[in-house]
Amino acid sequence: MANDTSGNGSASSTRRRGFLKKAGLLGTVGLAGCLGGGDGGSGDGDSGGDSGGSDGDSAGGDSGGEETTSGGDGGGEETLVMGTASEVSANFAMMSGLGGVVNENTDEVYLDVRPSASMAANIGRMARDEIDIGLIESTTAHDVNEGNEPFGDVAVDLRQIVHGSTSDWFLFAEDDQYSTIDDIGPDTYVAPGPSGSRVTDMVRRVLELAGVEYQERTTGYGDMGAAVAEGRIDVGLGAFTNVQVGTVTPGWVQEIKGTVDARLLGLPAELQSGINEEGWGNSFEFEVDPEGWAHVPDTPRSMSQVTWLYGTAETSTDAVYNVLETMYENRDSMGDYHELLSFYTNDDHWTREPHPGFSLHQGTQDFLDEYDLN
Predict the structure, then answer these.
(1) What's the rounded Cα separation, in Å, for the pair 34 and 96?
(2) Which of 127, 167, 274, 341 could bridge to 156 as Cys pair (CB 3.0-4.6 Å)?
(3) DSSP 3-state assignment of 278?
(4) Mind listing the pLDDT tens digit for each residue in 167-178?
(5) Do the beta carbons of residue 221 and residue 254 sit within 8 Å?
């Protein structure tokens, strides 16, 4: 458990109602940050970011909020403090919904869901015992596993708990001279994402792997369509979510379709293979509904980041098990708390695309064994 810095004497039911009211979850399906369309970008592999600025990628960043609190209110309830992503992001909204699912349906464990400056910052927060569990995306997981800076000296034994979501990124342009990533040239202004985002870092790596020369202009997600329409950039970035099991299109991407005649750029098959071999990203072939797009490649391929919820070897086995069991027993109603949680009705979603090099948490292994989900 994270360190207990303040007691909690209120009743569990009161806390849960207060938590849901504060998070805006009562009676809400699909929170802002998933399908909303603001004018900024939050990064973190977060296809639903809809406002604010960069999320940063520092391993030592903090949440910028209140002090972390742990500890239940008696009766054997355990508290897990969860670090997520920036508070304007879909990942924070999704995990807040998950907190609602768990906290409304069990007295065994309480999820205290907190924003983080970035998912990358959750590494340092777990190492410092500020949080018990945290979201991590695949680019950061790869760098931690490889010991790449700034994660070379991370002293924490990370364990994977459950798959979160998969954000499937693509490049787009309005000018019909661009049909594939190979059409980008030294004079092309490309927005790989907002400044400081791990998504931006991943897209840069893809462009470098492809041998593409370009001019970079970082741009917030919600500003991508306007930036292309106004000629500030030639190529922008968009995203879908969970295209392997059922596509969700964020509101800011819907705005792109309404702002410009957007052409999705193709990725060559050999580039897809190269991305998957490198390990810091994933690339999938997927289907795109062509309605609203000026051009769709014959075989669309994504640049994808996969999020997993992590704990450490010290995170309570019983608490992790109880979280997963409560989720699974209430999986049919999870979509009422956030649209992205609806994918947990698919048994394959729970363990989809694990990050290489990390073991499952013992609580997860016990849960998978009990429910025959291996």
Answers:
(1) 12
(2) 127
(3) helix
(4) 899 999 999 999
(5) no
Annotate 4-37 with b (16+ C-beta within 10 A) or e (fewer).
Answer: eeeebeeebeebbeebbeebebeebebbbbbbbb
In this prediction, residues 31-41 reach a mean pLDDT of 32
- Cβ atoms of 125 and 267 within 8 Å: the answer is no
Q: What is the DSSP letter of 285?
A: B
What is the pLDDT at residue 215?
Answer: 98
Residue 127's pLDDT band (boundaries 50, 70, 90)?
very high
- For 219-322, strand residue ranges (E) read 235-241, 263-264, 303-312
If one counts every other C-beta atom within 10 angstroms of the C-beta of residue 263, the result is 23
Residue 242: per-residue pLDDT:
62
Note the pLDDT tens digit of each residue in 219-254: 998 899 999 999 999 999 999 876 554 567 778 888
Span 55-70, pLDDT tens digits? 333 333 343 333 333 4
Does residue 308 contact residue 161 with C-beta atoms inside 8 Å?
yes
Structure tokens of 296?
A: 């769709």
Distance CA 313, CA 113 (A): 20
Within the chain, what is the greatest distance between any pair of CA atoms?
65
- Compute the Cα dihedral for 187, 193, 199, 201 and give only its sign: positive
Q: Of 351, 345, 342, 343, whose CA–CA distance to 369 is shortest?
A: 351
CA dihedral angle for residue 360, residue 363, residue 369, residue 371, rounded to 10 degrees: -120
Q: How far apart are CA 109 and CA 255, in angstroms?
A: 40
Q: Using a cut of 0.85, tell me whether the model's pTM lies above it.
A: no
CA separation for the pair 197, 43 (Å, rounded): 5
Q: Which two tokens stand for residue 14?
A: 């009161």
Do residues 342 and 348 lie in contact, with contact meaning Cβ atoms separated by under 8 Å? no
Q: Which residues lie across from 171 on neighbouring strands? A: 237
Say if residues 167 and 307 touch (Cβ distance below 8 Å): yes
- Partnered with residue 136 across adjacent β-strands are 308
Residue recorded with tokens 């802002």: 32
The tokens 């609203």 sit on which residue? Answer: 292
CB 110 within 8 A of CB 103: yes
Contact between residue 112 and residue 18 where contact means Cβ atoms under 8 Å apart: no
What does the pLDDT average to over 45-50?
41
Q: What is the pLDDT of residue 289?
A: 87
Whether the per-residue pLDDT at 6 is higher than 50: the answer is no
